[in-house]
């Protein structure tokens, strides 16, 4: 018998608090990942840009996840970012890396406010209308670490005119904005970043990207021939020997802005590689459940040797995930020690992801290398993720030098 009085209605549970913008965006992740996975093979085969996939990421609110709250955005953290990118990497690694660079741009704006107010407002307006991809174009053919850019900015009395070639420009054919590093042609050259519209006159995308993996990422060369850039969209061009402008506050912080930017880059791209490896493991699990060789009466998954090998993959990926996600939370707290560890973490996570996919291919034999199955694509994508990783010897030499310095202090 009910204990509710006859003249009373049962209590209706009050709705919980509305999800935050970040929570709302994360809730749409599973659907987006499924959409990406459904088209990934087609875009990989034809090396076509995944416009529909990027649109799906945008519509879910994931492409602007790191827009700061003061600009009306969700204010996603690095921990949120690696969570998103690991999942997108499960669906289509090319979409994930293109998304990563746009998220990194918004995150850097949140930290440093480097873009002029009017320019960033224009980017956000475009982002409300549809996907507005952004990337920083630094790499140049034949360039070496530490060298000034070969791309030249010449002042014609009214605007800067940019001339040069940039390479490995992820998302090149679809970028709304490009942050191009260049040096001036002044007697004492200055180096800065110039904000260039993707459809600018004098800008051409040279379709050079024909890699083993990440084939849909459109990481082509961008050629600039006297591309006009207004003075207000030239960032960081301080007078030679002069004090830094907007970056001065960041440089005085406990963790310099450049180091935080590198930490975000390291962990964001690590997350994509681990996501690819998780998809490879998912496919392997299905294969081991379904594959029963003619000389066996049970699937391969029933054999201890295969279970042990799968356990090795699982252990590698658990370690990589704990490393990436754990460091991301610490970087969000601006812990200097965590920021300093993201370079080696990127190396270790990428190695673990690559080893996991290679082992999955080894366990499956010929089926794993067949174009009829996605495992060979996962292998190509995870191998190609190294394009976003600093050379092993540079990462390890820096880690070794830091260890020696610690030893001297103790």
UniProtKB/TrEMBL annotation:
Signal peptide residue numbers: none
Domain Acyl-CoA dehydrogenase/oxidase N-terminal, residue spans: 36-100
A Pfam family per the record: Acyl-CoA_dh_M
Source domain of life: Bacteria
Gene3D superfamilies recorded: Acyl-CoA dehydrogenase/oxidase, N-terminal domain (1.10.540.10), Butyryl-CoA Dehydrogenase, subunit A, domain 2 (2.40.110.10), Butyryl-CoA Dehydrogenase, subunit A, domain 3 (1.20.140.10)
Keywords, comma-separated and alphabetical: Flavoprotein, Oxidoreductase
Limits of the Acyl-CoA dehydrogenase C-terminal domain: 268-390
Domain Acyl-CoA oxidase/dehydrogenase middle span(s) in chain numbering: 147-227
Region feature (Disordered): 1-21
InterPro entries reported for this sequence: Acyl-CoA_DH_C (IPR013107), Acyl-CoA_Oxase/DH_mid-dom (IPR006091), Acyl-CoA_Oxase/DH_mid-dom_sf (IPR046373), AcylCo_DH-like_C (IPR036250), AcylCoA_DH/ox_N (IPR013786), AcylCoA_DH/ox_N_sf (IPR037069), AcylCoA_DH/oxidase_NM_dom_sf (IPR009100), Mito_Isobutyryl-CoADH (IPR052547)
Protein name as catalogued: Acyl-CoA/acyl-ACP dehydrogenase
Species, as recorded: Kitasatospora purpeofusca
């Amino acid at each position: 018998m009910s204990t509710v009085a006859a003249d009373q209605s049962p209590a209706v549970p009050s709705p919980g608090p509305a999800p935050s913008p970040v929570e709302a965006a994360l809730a749409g992740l599973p659907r987006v990942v499924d959409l990406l996975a459904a088209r990934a093979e087609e875009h990989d085969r034809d090396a076509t840009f995944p416009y529909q996939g990027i649109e799906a990421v945008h519509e879910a609110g994931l492409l602007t996840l790191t827009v700061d709250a003061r600009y009306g955005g969700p204010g996603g953290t690095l921990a949120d970012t690696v969570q998103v990118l690991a999942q997108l990497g499960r669906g289509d690694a090319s979409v994930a890396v293109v998304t990563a660079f746009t998220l990194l741009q918004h995150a850097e704006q949140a930290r440093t406010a480097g873009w002029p107010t009017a320019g960033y407002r224009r980017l956000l307006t475009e982002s409300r209308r549809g996907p507005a991809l952004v990337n920083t174009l630094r790499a140049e053919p034949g360039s070496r670490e530490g060298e000034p850019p070969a791309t030249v900015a010449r002042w014609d009395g009214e605007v800067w005119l940019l001339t040069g070639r940039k390479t490995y420009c992820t998302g090149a054919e679809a970028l709304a904005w490009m942050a191009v590093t260049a040096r001036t042609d002044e007697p004492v050259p200055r180096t800065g970043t110039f904000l260039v519209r993707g459809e600018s006159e004098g800008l051409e995308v040279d379709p050079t990207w024909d890699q083993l993996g990440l084939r849909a990422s459109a990481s082509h060369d961008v050629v600039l021939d006297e591309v006009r850039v207004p003075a207000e969209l030239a960032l960081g061009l301080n007078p030679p020997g002069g004090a830094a402008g907007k970056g001065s506050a960041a440089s005085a912080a406990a963790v310099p802005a450049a180091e935080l930017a590198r930490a975000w880059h390291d962990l964001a791209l690590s997350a994509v590689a681990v996501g690819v490896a998780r998809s490879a493991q998912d496919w392997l699990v299905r294969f081991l459940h379904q594959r029963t060789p003619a000389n066996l009466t049970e699937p391969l998954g029933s054999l201890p040797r295969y279970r042990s090998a799968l356990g090795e993959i699982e252990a590698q990926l658990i370690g990589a995930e704990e490393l990436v996600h754990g460091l991301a939370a610490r970087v969000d707290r601006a812990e200097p020690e965590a920021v300093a560890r993201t370079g080696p973490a990127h190396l270790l996570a990428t190695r673990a992801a690559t080893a996991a996919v290679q082992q999955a291919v080894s366990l499956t034999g010929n089926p794993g290398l067949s174009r009829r199955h996605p495992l060979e694509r996962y292998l190509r994508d995870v191998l190609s993720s190294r394009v976003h990783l600093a050379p092993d010897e540079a990462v390890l030499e820096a880690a070794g030098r830091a260890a020696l310095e610690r030893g001297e202090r103790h």
